[in-house]
Design brief:
With about 200 residues, the chain is α/β, with parallel strands linked by helices. The chain has 9 helices and 6 strands; from the N terminus they run H-E-H-E-H-E-H-E-H-E-H-E-H-H-H. Strand 4, helix 5 and strand 5 form a beta-alpha-beta unit. Helix 2 runs parallel beside helix 3.
């Protein structure tokens, strides 16, 4: 359960803030992961601010075809086609994270441990996550990330916009989250805990 802190090295949000605000999800394509809620939230975000890009990373080949069709239909219905980019799960996760401004974990049900959340925190990437499962252990709301209610795209959108509108919040969350991961999830730390 450790995270390679060299691979997921820290980059401050200030250093990468460009003209485009990139919000991403990195997860398996299954309904539990809440992709449709994420797209609805991003539809609202894209109406409130310009130059937004949506990155969805995962293995589309291994997903159920019916679910991928639902995602594609939602993208068309919400007219997000021009701003959604799919990334293959074969690509380097750390590299994709370096190009994001915010990572969203949109889980709708219990999940023991959100690896992408910890990796994002290690990378200095601010996280918005639904208040479910093991993710809650790693996000102190307003300190190491922002929490939203599961199944509530409006709440999720508001949290994403909180970051977009407040560079200082992004910077503070980024630093606190990295410190949290160093303390609990560095490979050395998890080795120590395993040996104990």
């Amino acid at each position: 359960r450790g995270v390679d802190l060299k691979k997921f090295s820290y980059t401050s949000p200030k250093e990468k803030r460009g003209k485009v605000f990139r919000v991403g999800m990195i997860s398996r394509f299954t309904p539990l992961k809440g992709h449709l809620d994420f797209l609805k939230a991003m539809s609202y975000v894209s109406r409130k601010m310009h130059n937004v890009e949506i990155i969805m990373m995962g293995d589309r080949e291994r997903a159920k075809e019916e679910y991928i069709k639902k995602i594609e239909l939602t993208i068309r219905r919400l007219m997000l086609g021009s701003i959604v980019r799919f990334r293959s799960s074969d690509e380097d996760v750390a590299g994709v994270m370096k190009n994001l401004d915010v990572l969203v974990s949109a889980n709708t049900g219990q999940e023991a441990f959100g690896r992408s959340v910890i990796e994002a925190q290690a990378s200095g990437l601010p996280v918005v996550a639904t208040r479910v499962g093991g993710v809650v252990e790693n996000i102190i709301d307003g300190k190491t990330g922002l929490l939203c209610e599961p199944g509530d795209p409006q709440d999720m959108a508001d949290r994403i916009l909180d970051y977009a509108r407040d560079a200082e919040l992004m910077e503070n969350v980024s630093k606190e989250a990295r410190a949290h991961v160093e303390e609990r999830y560095s490979i050395e730390k998890t080795m120590e805990m395993t040996l104990e």
